[in-house]
Amino acid sequence: MALSRRTFSALAGSTALGLALGGSNCSRASSAYAARSAPTGPAPSPPGVDGQRHTVGYDRYSLLVDGKRLVVWSGEMHPFRLPSPSLWRDVLQKMRAHGYNAVSIYVAWNYHSPAPGTYDFTGVRDLDLFLRMAAETGLYVILRPGPYINAEVDGGGFPGWLTVTKGSARTADPTYLSYADEWLTQVNRIARRHLFTHGTGTILLYQIENEYDSHVDEATGRTYMSHLYRKVRADGIDVPLFHNDKGRNGYWIPGSFDTGGDSGGWLYGFDGYPSPAHTPPDWGHFGAGGATGGATASPGTPGFVPEFGGGWFDPWGGAWFSGKGYAESRRTRDAAYERRFYLTNLANGITLHNVYMTFGGTSWGWLPAPVVYTSYDYGAAIDEARNVGEKIQPMHQLGHLLQRVPDFAKLDRAADVKAEGLRVYHLTNPDTGAHVYVARNDGTGPVTAALPTDAGDLRITVPAKDARLLTTGLALGRRKLKWSTAQPMLCLTAGRQDIAVFTGRRGDMVQLVLDCPAEPNVTRLDPEAAWVYDRGELHVSVPLGQGGLTRVLVRRGGSDTPLLLLFADDATSARLFPYDTPSGTLLVYGPALLRHAELRGSKAHLTGDVIGETAVEVWGPRGIRRVAWNGRALPTRVTASDSLMTTAMLPGVAEVRLPELGGWRMRTENPEAGPGFDDSRWKRADKSSSYSTTPVPAGQPVLFADDYGFHYGDVWYRGTFDDTRGVEEVSLAYSSGTQGLLMAWLDGEPLGTHRLPVPDVDTTIRKGTWAQTAVFPVRGALRSPGRHVLSVLVRRMQHDEDGKALDTHKAARGLTAVTFKGASPKVRWRIQGACAPDPVRGPLNNGGLYGERQGWHLPGFHDHGWEPVVFPRTERRQGVTWYRTRFRLSVPRDIDASVGLTLQDDPYRAYRAQIFLNGWNLGQYINNVGPQHTFVLPNGILRTRGTNTLALAVLSEFTTLSGPGSVRLTLLGSTSGGVPVKPV
Ligand code: GAL
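# beta-D-galactopyranose complex -> structure
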């Protein structure tokens, strides 16, 4: 396809000079531009749908959006991990408010496609809606539709049906390519309508494939990548494309495959998930990575990490995996981790940065890959229950800095600087002359040292395993910073004054020196600040964290533009929200979240969230005299710093009470185990060949569930045989993915349960097959002549990911072979899994339990005839038992409460529960494995003002007593505010 050169102008020289000079933010006081490429200037305004054509170019420093430098500070979230579209907006608004300018999303093929040729982008799968919301929120989108995504989802995102197709996935195999194209056509049909280049949306960048490190040097791989590239271009996607290299290998740099003559628009990106124990890696342009290490592999494109760890996923619990829960990921990759690693990235010339995950969410239904459990919280800055935690603080500070202080978009490495006990990076902006220092402490104790800067020695303390960012020579509106031991967070012009915010750790005594050739008029608006003027320099010192914000106003009198200096410790800084409106920029201080701001006449209309009682302070354009918060007018006064401050506090969020769960009813199932069960409508399992990577045993039919169209959740088998002479034992080989399970019955009598992993599973796991064999003696049971039925339930976990492009997603799931000792009866097999996919909840919602096939999980099902029970409960039984109850919530409309379901019991009891809320499969609890005990119930699926139906499908193993024990609702967070939530 013809690609417009205009779109991909990798702008060089002084192309953008004119644009850069026209801006209105603080940087306009910058010194002369001496640019080798596009100079430093104000960043582009937040994106939206404006109907204008835009260009997305780049040079080695950064992206150039309409010729203006843009540092991409992005967070990853997965719409498919939050099955309530209203809440997408909540997460997006939280990201935007806390300094992100982009959201990166995978689009999971399996989530949208229950069968070849069938694609669904409605309801919780509405990609178009997500892209609209991102544009409305003012966030760029980095779109990553695979076809392969990995992401700890079933099959790495490959649909179940792809496991039974010919050809090797992730290669140039024509069958695979035809399916991959089918998927990309569907995604691109939607994506095309939301391209930033067209002014119809905010898609800024687009990734093909993910971590493709197989076949790199072979024609197979190059042909494959070339095919995907051309396909995406042919579909009309004209933003820059890129790939996410698994680590810093230098794979898929520009020129490494044929783009069909299309010369622009390919970026090199690589990911990194360093352990907190590692020294942060120098992987960017300035790094010691060598010719192929990280960004140095692609000297002509900007440093780009499409994924950098913001937490880590957690495996199942139990002896072998020892998942510790997400509190641990959050503890080990904390705010200091973020400062230490992400500042190192910036210091290495990375100007496109995406944090994986920023909101992890929930791998609900049968979405999780075998390695993970339901929660995909990831220890991210925004937790699974949508609470904004402490980890947001460095993200907020850095994100706003990178968007509002343009000096950071173009940094060269400057002369090495040494400070005792610290690793120091020194950079400078060639256009503005600002210097940037990152001082990192990799040791286990705090380090205080003299940092020799171009503005003199600064005495700084860096806590253990932490880092600090310092600048000298930075323009602060019409004035200039000489140096500061605090980190700049933003600089903006609100109405008549420039405002600069500086941050640090609570308890820091920070210093700041302003160049002031003439003695200024300084007002200390908060008592803890001290200042002194000495020979052309204003010295300010502030102890941070003495009760919120510290304000110092610097004026010269007359018509001079004042500079307001604001000092904030980390927690305070995250309650300071800059917001650009068409009539000027606002800075709002106080609430937990500012979602949206609009100026109408003399009134600022603000919406957002409050948790604890707070005042609200607003700096804004001239003429703004009144403030409304969530639709209600607030009484305010004008302060000495020219802000509007509420005269009464906004109350904190009211207490939310959740009901006790009771009124449970139960019913046992698994009639399939009984000899008389009618299976005549089940599929015959009689195929003789399969595309699976698991060999079909000689002389046996294919028993793999996928081959019969059952791709997710539980499968039942019934094998009928007549000739029982000599049969002593039956061996059931099955393959299930970790934590899989098999239960067998002979003529309705339990033979036993077998479960993964078992102690010797180690080697099998490494082979990635997750296969085990359950052996049951049957001799005594088969004395009677005539027909016998072997019934087997396989709790199949999910398909393996295909990280190495070895078709590992095609490993069989379900029974793989059945053999008998003593004889070889001829068995006629039938198989049953999930019914037709749920048209609303999608293909991954259900497996093939009897109750699921009968709709016992659905809210409309009548359970009046079921037996009433109370929890805790104990029973000893092999099989499936369902429990249902209803509960009513009446959370006030203006409170956003996040609710979870918590299950607890004696960890010795071997049972598990599939949790259905209003018919939605919200996860799997395994009592004797863990570590997850609390399951998030997303609002929209959860009726916070209405009646809900909860159903638990419990599989108990007979080896121990089984529960459920205690089952209760837990309040995971609440704010006064939130977004309007539509029922899903
Ligand atoms: C990356 C991969 C992601 C995800 C992540 C770990 O290597 O690209 O899809 O699997 O690791 O959470």
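# post-check
Residues 1-36, 759-767 have pLDDT under 50 and may be disordered.
Residues 149-152, 210-211, 244, 246, 271, 307, 313 surround beta-D-galactopyranose (CB under 6 Å).
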